[in-house]
Structures are given as structure tokens and as C-alpha cells.
């Protein structure tokens, strides 16, 4: 059963890379969207019809209750890739506890939660463990409260404005070769607009309530292959040097302390101990009406030399 009537939707993390595409997709469907952010203005989403950007801290329980008031549904995209165990717990677990409480208080029952492929409480990575713990909080709320939950677990997300392929492309424009940790780990990258379409589908179809979907693209690549694609697309292909585990650990450790945004951490390395590909028999994009997911090569074609 489909429900395509316009809704008022709160999008947590709506000003980020994935959030911008989700807001655009929801806007195209005529929904009204509220995007909280701690830093105004969020021009990247303010341009879309029906989007209201408000200054707020979603980690403040009182502000979260206020934000949810009057909304029909909430989409949670808030996440971090780097940090301490405390930081991961704060963002991926405690926020879920606050969100459940706020939903109960304001009578907002519909939640689409973007988790991560590989979320597992037994994983080597703090990131993956915390993502699984956040899901556990939400599933517990389904049992004790009237929460209509859909969980989406995307693989690495790519797009023209991503911070994945673009980062590797920029690095190869600077360095003569690419030393690479986790070179043989396999990924099944998914296009950001396919993720956005998946969110819209979930909010429009009650048949997705209570379900978990793994969002993966049509192709599987090793990390080395992805770096090589980034190099060819940027016009600066470089030799990729896979690093043994001991050297990779030292590289990740050093990169944690470099100034600027963290590109690689020891926790990232831990997450690459297992492949990031769809599980056997998992529900995916096809079950969400996306029959022809976009390929990576279509978005990042190789440049002619």
C-alpha cells in the first residue's frame, strides 16, 4: 500500500552529503522538510522548495522534542566515521535513545533510520559496533512503543560531490604513488541518489515498516580498484602500493594525528577486516522499486589521456 500524500518530515543530518540528496528527493515529491543544523545557513538544502532550515542541536533532548513537534515522520542520517568509542556511542547510540523518547512524547511514530552495511555488535570496528547498538535501541523501542521503523544499511555511498572517490582523486593529483591500507577489501558502492530514492520509497510505502534493507550497487570492487578508478577519472592515475597489515596500522595511526579532516583511522582499518558487500538473500534496492541502480563508472567515467 502506497501513501503519497505530502508529509511533514524531520531530516536529521539533512545538511550533509547524503542528506542534501534526500532532501531534494523529498522536496520533489511535495513533502515539507525540516532540517536542523548547528551552523546556519545550510544553503545547499535551503534552495529546495518546502525545506526549512533551523538552528538546533539534535543531541539536546529538549531541542529534539521541540523539533519533532508537528511532524509526521523522521529520517535519521546523523553519523560520524571517525572518533573515540565515547564519540561513537554519543552519536550512534545515545542519540537513538533520545530520539525514541522524543518520538514517544510527540506521537511521531514513523522513522527511517540509515545505519551501515556491516553493522555488528561483534565487529572489530567501534563504528560498526556502535551502529549495531543504535539499531538495537530502535528495535527494542519497536517492541515497547508504537514505533514504525525501517532500517537502511548502505555500503559506501558515492556521488559527484562525495568525500570518497573525490578524496582519492585529489590525493593522486598530489602524490606520485598511492600507499594503500586494506587494498583487497571488497565494497559494493551505492549511488547517493539511489539511497535518496530508497528513503522516499520507504516513507511512501507502509510495507517497508519493520524491515531492514541493504543498499548496494550493481558492482563489487576492491578498495584498490576504487582508488584506481578515482585516479583515472581525475586524470592522475597513480601506482597503488598495497600495504601489509603492520605498515597499514602505522599509516592509519599517523593519519589520525595529521591536521585537517581525518582520511584514515585505525578504526577504519578494523572495519576493513570484513568485506562490505550485500549479504546472501538480503532485501535490497530492487525490493524498494529501484530496478536499475546506477553504476560507479557512469558517475565517474575515465578521462581520455
Your description of this structure?
There is one protein chain. With 305 residues, the protein is an alpha/beta fold. Helix content is 40%, strand content 17%. It has a domain at 8-158 and 190-215 and 278-290: NAD(P)-binding Rossmann-like Domain (Rossmann fold, 3-Layer(aba) Sandwich). Helix 1 links the parallel strand 1 (8-12) and strand 2. The model has no long low-confidence stretch (mean pLDDT 92).
List keywords for this structure.
7-stranded parallel sheet, Rossmann fold, 17% strand, 40% helix, 13 strands, 305 residues, alpha/beta
**CATH architectural designation of one domain:** 3-Layer(aba) Sandwich
CATH level-3 fold name of one domain? Rossmann fold
Radius of gyration: 19 Å
* Distance separating the two termini: 51 Å
Strand tally is: 13
The largest sheet is: 7 strands, parallel
Number of helices: 11
Percent helix range: 40-55%
State the secondary-structure class: alpha/beta
- Low-pLDDT residue spans: none
Mean pLDDT: 92
Query: Strand portion, in percent?
Result: 15-25%
What is the assigned CATH homologous superfamily of one domain? NAD(P)-binding Rossmann-like Domain
Overall geometry comes to globular
Following the backbone from N to C, one meets helices and strands in this order, namely EHEHEHEHEHEEHEEEHEEHEHHH
Q: What would CATH call the class of one domain?
A: Alpha Beta
Strand order of the largest sheet: 3-2-1-4-5-6-11
